[in-house]
Amino acid sequence: MYLLSPLKKQYKANLHCHSVLSDGKKTPHELKEMYKKQGYSILSITDHEAPKSHSYLNDAEFLTITGYETYIRPDAECRYDAYDKEIHINLFARDPENEAIVCYNPAYCKYITNEQKEKLKKVGSQKTREYSVAYINELIQTAKAHGYIAAYNHPWWSMEEEADILQYEGFFSMEMCNYSSYLIGHLEYNAALYDTMLAAGKRIFCHSADDNHNVAPSDSLAFDSFGGFTMIMPESFTYDAVIEAMERGEMYSSMGPVFKEISMTGNKIHIECSDVERIMVFTGSKAPKRKYAAPGGTINSADFEIDERAKFVRVSVVDAYGKFADTRGFFRDELEF
Hints:
Largest sheet: 10 strands, mixed
Order of helices and strands: EEHEEEEEHEHEHHEHHEEHEEEEEEEEE
Distance between the termini: 11 Å
Low-confidence stretches: none
Shape: globular
Mean pLDDT: 97
Number of strands: 21
Radius of gyration: 20 Å
Helix content: 10-25%
Strand content: 25-35%
């Protein structure tokens, strides 16, 4: 059985992006131009508390996913505190024309005018936002009830406690690498947290994204585009098919390497990928399966046997530049052994 089929076309996507509609420095048209030039086929412009369809940018080779970024802070007035935790959630619309704002709170809509706030289509409770597991789960469920799927953003930057994270319900995916946050200190690569979630039985996928604001020029080390991306494998290149593929986990996270095939025959797994230095299979144990290239060399395939105690199967590779690619976790009831 294929965990990643070589027969399916892969489309490169950035699922977290900011424009001049919030705190980004590029217009939506400029974002399309720069990402399309870099080989991207899919872009979600997720401005803060500003749901907006950008379907006017779509063409035969480029698709925008409607969405926005919502967030919750402990401070009732939504004041930023670099030493306090908060949560950010990307909401992706199943219907490309869905521009409803979930659990509207004017204190969080910092980038739009009062006139624009009045015109927003508001759904769900509009009580004061509360930084608590119960309220966050309520917001996620409200979003799902009104046509969105919810993704968990940059957990390292958000400084959330693991005990709280493990209580969240309803996220379809989490950011393995948020590149903008990764640039701050190279800590926003969240594989350890992801494996903890899988080991706890959380059915959640993983993806990577830029979260780009484009404040720094393209020749700066602080340039925050083209560093984390998601490869999506829909049945066809249509909006509905892309959303369905995301919901099914037909995608993987990357900072550079690409997977070409991952298949299983019984308890044996076969992996093919671009040239890398290490190929690893995580199963919920302290001893992942691994294969290393010879010094100065590369490898692009590996075969392993998965033991009967494996809690899940997740493939990870790292190239000579220290860039990772990661599949989602596949649980035992999804596998044929």
